[in-house]
């Protein structure tokens, strides 16, 4: 059965939960590495793809700016290389009634990128904040 979500909630190490309106994606990647070898008897070249560099999983979420500055301050801690900027938490995909449709545990996450955009003078549009988290590991709950 396909999952639909009306909102996305993240909570980290006892912090107040934050709600987002858009999940741009959860990305996990292993780069392929080319491997060339010669067969020990025939000398034929063997060309294969092997597991290469593992990139850390990332999650990108978007919401309206609420004025708290929490994610920007947390990002600054990560920019300064403070070990305390790594926090574990949970991402929940919720329906309109607030019930969890799916959940993921995020280990040692930190905001690697924060974007604030959508600004236009004289417009009544909401200013959006996009936060990309990097994690050591993401596990479905």
Automatic annotation (TrEMBL):
Pfam families: Phage_T4_gp19. GO terms for molecular function: structural molecule activity. NCBIfam families: conserved hypothetical phage tail region protein. This is Phage tail protein. It comes from Streptomyces parvus. The lineage of its organism: Bacteria, Bacillati, Actinomycetota, Actinomycetes, Kitasatosporales.
């Amino acid at each position: 059965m396909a999952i639909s979500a009306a909102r996305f909630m993240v909570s980290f190490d006892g912090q107040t939960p934050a709600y987002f309106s858009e999940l741009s994606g959860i990305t996990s990647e292993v780069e392929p590495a080319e491997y060339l070898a010669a067969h020990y008897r025939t000398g034929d070249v063997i060309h294969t793809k092997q597991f290469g560099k593992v990139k850390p999983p990332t999650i990108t979420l978007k919401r309206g700016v609420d004025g708290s500055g929490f994610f920007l301050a947390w990002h600054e801690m990560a920019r300064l290389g403070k070990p305390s900027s790594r926090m574990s938490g949970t991402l929940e995909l919720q329906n309109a009634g607030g019930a969890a449709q799916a959940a993921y545990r995020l280990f040692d996450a930190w905001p690697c990128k924060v974007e604030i955009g959508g600004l236009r003078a004289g417009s009544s549009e909401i200013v959006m904040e996009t936060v990309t988290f990097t994690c050591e590991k993401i596990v479905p709950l």
